[in-house]
């Protein structure tokens, strides 16, 4: 693959964006709806705990079943990820940078006092953006 073809494939297509957001939407829906054991997380500095629903295996199995059904019904190609790999990579990178900037901005504007939402502003942009 030459450099021009690689550069052209780095531009995400709308179909790659649809695949990415469909997957993220599925994860959000499955994480909220599917049953799973509630497990307490680590103790936060204010002595509270976040609770997590352990339904990852059920979510994976349902994703595989739905993907197989989509391929069987002709709604999607079984090679959709391989066909759009570089486009999905760049779409995921662009999406993650946008989300981190939104989280950075909302963290700067946060006035919550609980430890999980308390802003951690050091004045160093890179450190604040990373943490």
UniProtKB/TrEMBL annotation:
<feature type="transmembrane region" description="Helical">
    <location>
        <begin position="88"/>
        <end position="108"/>
    </location>
</feature>
<comment type="similarity">
    <text>Belongs to the ERG4/ERG24 family.</text>
</comment>
<dbReference type="GO" id="GO:0016126">
    <property type="term" value="P:sterol biosynthetic process"/>
</dbReference>
<dbReference type="InterPro" id="IPR001171">
    <property type="entry name" value="ERG24_DHCR-like"/>
</dbReference>
<keyword id="KW-0812">Transmembrane</keyword>
<feature type="transmembrane region" description="Helical">
    <location>
        <begin position="56"/>
        <end position="76"/>
    </location>
</feature>
<dbReference type="GO" id="GO:0050613">
    <property type="term" value="F:Delta14-sterol reductase activity"/>
</dbReference>
<dbReference type="Pfam" id="PF01222">
    <property type="entry name" value="ERG4_ERG24"/>
</dbReference>
<keyword id="KW-0472">Membrane</keyword>
<protein>
    <submittedName>
        <fullName>Uncharacterized protein</fullName>
    </submittedName>
</protein>
<keyword id="KW-1133">Transmembrane helix</keyword>
<dbReference type="GO" id="GO:0005789">
    <property type="term" value="C:endoplasmic reticulum membrane"/>
</dbReference>
């Amino acid at each position: 693959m030459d450099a021009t073809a690689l550069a052209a494939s780095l531009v995400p297509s709308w179909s790659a964006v649809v695949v990415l957001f469909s997957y993220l939407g599925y994860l959000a829906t499955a994480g909220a709806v599917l049953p799973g054991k509630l497990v307490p997380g680590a103790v936060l500095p204010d002595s509270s705990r976040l609770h997590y629903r352990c339904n990852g295996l059920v979510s994976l199995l349902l994703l595989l079943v739905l993907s197989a059904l989509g391929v069987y019904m002709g709604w999607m190609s079984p090679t959709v990820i391989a066909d759009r790999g570089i486009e999905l990579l760049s779409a995921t990178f662009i999406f993650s940078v946008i989300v981190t900037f939104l989280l950075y901005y909302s963290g700067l504007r946060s006035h919550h006092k609980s430890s999980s939402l308390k802003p951690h502003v050091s004045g160093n942009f890179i450190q604040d953006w990373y943490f």
